[in-house]
Hints:
heterodimer; A: mainly beta; five-stranded mixed sheet; 10 strands; 53% strand; B: mainly beta; seven-stranded mixed sheet; four-stranded antiparallel sheet; 0% helix; 48% strand
Amino acid sequence: KQEVTQIPAALSVPEGENLVLNCSFTDSAIYNLQWFRQDPGKGLTSLLLIQSSQREQTSGRLNASLDKSSGRSTLYIAASQPGDSATYLCAPLGGSGGGADGLTFGKGTHLIIQP
Amino acid sequence: EAGVAQSPRYKIIEKRQSVAFWCNPISGHATLYWYQQILGQGPKLLIQFQNNGVVDDSQLPKDRFSAERLKGVDSTLKIQPAKLEDSAVYLCASTLGVFTEKLFFGSGTQLSVL
């Protein structure tokens, strides 16, 4: 059964800093991995999707990397802004059971960017 | 493009009552998911539909939870009878395919069982 761990659980930094959020997963037989953002009281918004054959994906100030063999992914946020404050969740798709495993979520990193 | 629609937005019931949630996915999305998110946790998959067929319901408490997706479009999730531990946000998500596409989530239904 896939298990996902996200470190740190919470992070508070002044705006302008570059950040790294970490995600590790136990079963490396995944199809892809997504990073999501969740604002309080809202659903999840997909930020980046990395296919298992890819090493990284970039969107604006966000860059996600994937090291499938070691079961790790990182989300890099450049020049953080107060609007980046949210909970960030990573979710690999699949595992040894195949795609029917669905997405497995970590508990997330609660990020606060101080103005 | 319209997003994933869910209703109601909030629901408060007493234990042992029944409740139903509704989801309308993005048009053309064949795959639909229901997730349960307990406060402070990541979402947990309850059931996955491909068109109107169930792909995975291994984590659905079938003694009290049921779900259907008629005609491969809208879906309903029902809890009967509800327990205190069912208090959570119920999220619906859809995707065009399964293995290569981003998931799109609705805003969720926040359920409080008293």
